[in-house]
Amino acid sequence: MPFLDLETNLPQHGIPEEFAQKLCSAAASILGKPKERVNATVRSGLSMVIGGSSAPCAHLAISSIGVVGTAEQNKEHSAKFFEFLTKELNLEQDRVLLRFYPLEPWQIGKKGTVMTFL
């Protein structure tokens, strides 16, 4: 059950239509998870600075069970997420940052319990 939280200083009209849906599909493919289990939040128009500059930029936090826990996994994921984000948001690679957070099943609540028991 991946969670994607994208924050950007691009204005809402600078985000392609259906971007959240495209992000979910891309993440499902990249992480090898069913699209129905991918959750995404997109926040635009934020006050942001990356590398000392407030030029257009984006930050993506990726949390998931079992697929973002090693440097080798994240190196592969990173290349694919960068390809997607730079193309879709028309940003240079140095204006995008990713953060990976491995999750355990007991850290995600669903249907009145936690994923461990589902």
From TrEMBL:
Cross-referenced SUPFAM superfamilies: Tautomerase/MIF
Keyword line: Acetylation, Cytoplasm, Lyase, Melanin biosynthesis
Signal peptide: none
InterPro entries assigned: Macrophage_inhib_fac (IPR001398), Tautomerase/MIF_sf (IPR014347)
Compartment annotation: Cytoplasm
Enzyme class, broadest EC rank: lyase
EC number in record: 4.1.1.84
PANTHER family according to UniProt: D-DOPACHROME DECARBOXYLASE (PTHR11954)
SUBUNIT field: Homotrimer.
Family label: Belongs to the MIF family.
Function: Tautomerization of D-dopachrome with decarboxylation to give 5,6-dihydroxyindole (DHI).
Protein's name according to its UniProt entry: D-dopachrome decarboxylase
UniProt source species: Ranitomeya imitator (mimic poison frog)
